[in-house]
Predict the structure.
Amino acid sequence: AVEGGGLWNSGGGTLDVDNSTVAQNSATRGAGVYLDGAGGTITLDYVSVTNNQGSGVFAVDGAGGSITVNNSLVSGNSPDLGSGVTADGANGNVTGDVAFNGAYRLYGGPTATQPLATDSVALDTNADCAATDTDQRGADRGFDAVDPNNGDGDCDSGAFELTDDPVVQATRLNLGSAVIGNDDADAVVLGVRLANNSDTAV
């Protein structure tokens, strides 16, 4: 794309994004998130903008409009933030190099996420988790990965919360009916398959 590889907003539109991952897009301007100005607004809250080929969050200079970034992770883009876009740590944001654990793919939940490593600087960065109870996958927010004993319930920046309780999905299968008598030589075998969709163990 020329602009707005992942998310694009223009005119007087309002784009509010929560608990979402914008990853592996490409564009000349705004590979991840792009604002074309003209009074439009974009708000990112607990969003991961990661590993896009181009700028992560970009706004056209002098075109008007605003981008607000809170509790979010912007990392692995080139550059992470366009001119005039801010993502302050005081607002729960983390930018620059962080430690990821695996590729962008399914780690539980219905949509792909970018998992954090146990030594990531994005862990436990937000003391106020009132805005959201779960991450993008549906995992409970407020797990203290850095110090599990401090009881603070701090949240991780971005859409992924590193917890000790992986998100597991179960699918119901209709196997039909089978009647086996004493004289039947055949057997019915029922199996349960657990699939790990990640690159690493969970």
